[in-house]
Amino acid sequence: MARTSHLARYTQGKLTRRLTRAIPYIGTVIAVATIGSAIRRKGWIRGALHAGLDAIPYVGGAKTMAEVARGRDFLSDRIRPSPTENGR
């Protein structure tokens, strides 16, 4: 019984260490997957900058936490004219 609990703790510790090493790469994968929508919303330059900052490990996390605390994005979305301004 003691060996089983020791083995479970050992396995849990190994899995935790492995996941904490992978977290920066998981954020990069998510940033690369969302680059298209960021460029559509923000335009080429702002969208690429937004996705690029999010892809950098730890910088992207700090940027996201600051945006959550601030309540809005650092790089705002592209301003789109309303349908009434286009004459539609």
User: How does the helix and strand content classify structurally?
Assistant: mainly alpha
- The low-pLDDT segments are none
- Quaternary organisation: single chain
Q: Per DSSP, what share of the residues sits in E-state strands of 2 or more residues?
A: under 5%
Using the alpha-carbon principal axes, give the shape: elongated
Distance from N terminus to C terminus (CA atoms, Å) equals 74 Å
Radius of gyration, taken over Cα atoms and rounded to an integer in Å: 21 Å
Secondary-structure element order, N to C: HHHH
Question: How would a crystallographer describe the biggest sheet?
Answer: none
Can you count the beta strands? Answer: 0
Q: What's the rounded overall pLDDT mean?
A: 82
Question: Helices, strands, pairings?
Answer:
Blueprint: H1 2-33, H2 35-42, H3 44-55, H4 59-70
Helix pairs in contact: 1-3, 2-3, 3-4
Description:
By secondary structure, the protein is mostly helical. It has a domain of 56 residues. 73% of the residues lie in helices and 0% in strands. Helix 1 runs antiparallel to helix 3, helix 2 packs antiparallel against helix 3 and helix 3 crosses helix 4. The N and C termini lie far apart (74 Å).
